Protein: TonB-dependent receptor-like beta-barrel domain-containing protein
Organism: Sphingomonas hankyongi
Amino acid sequence: MLTSRTETSSVELSGTASHRRYSRQYGSYVYGTGVLSGSIQESEELELSASAHYRHEINADVVDDVAAAIDPKSVRQSFGADAAATWRASERSVFTPSMSVERVSFEDSNRLQSYDRVGGSLGYNRQLNEYTSAGANFGTELYRHQNAADANVLSATATIQHKLSPTMEIEGALGVESVGGNHEGQLSDSSDRQVFLTGNGSLCRRGEWTNLCLTSAISSQPSGVGSLERRLSGGVSYSLRMGESSNLGLSANYQRSSSVNDLIDEPLTYMHARAAFDRKLSDALTVDTFLDYRRRAGIASAGAASAGINLRWKTGRN
């Protein structure tokens, strides 16, 4: 990781590269990620941020996606970028426009379809009192598939954040999504569109040494089979700070997905559990260990368990 920070700006570059060889049917792969991000404080009222990423992933590892069930031997590549602004219109009101683009492709697969995604949103939040803030978010996502009809999602949600105590906070968003197709570059009319519930929520307790969070979400997401899928998820995470240099983390997540347009007949369910421990050996060097278990049930049931030890080296200036 490389970082550079000043009083009004920051830039960070991080990445991983790994080689994996399977003992049986999957062969060997090189995979990794890279992320470049930055932000600048233009004034007391305006902050700008942007990031770009590249990911090269093995589908056999991505059990929470229908593409992994269809063709686990394929390799997923994604390039993307996003930009956002935070404008404080007053002491209590904040506007957050954002946009993003991404291209996802699948190597060595004739069963999965690449797609491009373009999205944008506008959020508004107002501090109502010392404990509560509320707002709204409006967004759109456009998807262009390689060999299938294009799709679009229009969404509107209401948001709220409330502090129950100095250490406990609840957040939530609830609204609707309108999902449709694109015909000759035009959005489909209202008779062809489907309307779904969308939202997310979290309840977190954050202490000096421990954090505990419960989360849930429901939304429409892209898949690698030329359609959108509905995802319902829930999870719990716990972290413990063990002294000045060590941390323990535990998490468990469950997800259920189904195709919007019935391209996939059977819904898929996923479970992911993870335990991790890290220890800072010096200002630049950290060692971490992890144990992962993932299970998918549905079209092609599968499970995966993995464990590892990583060394992370950080350089740069703060």
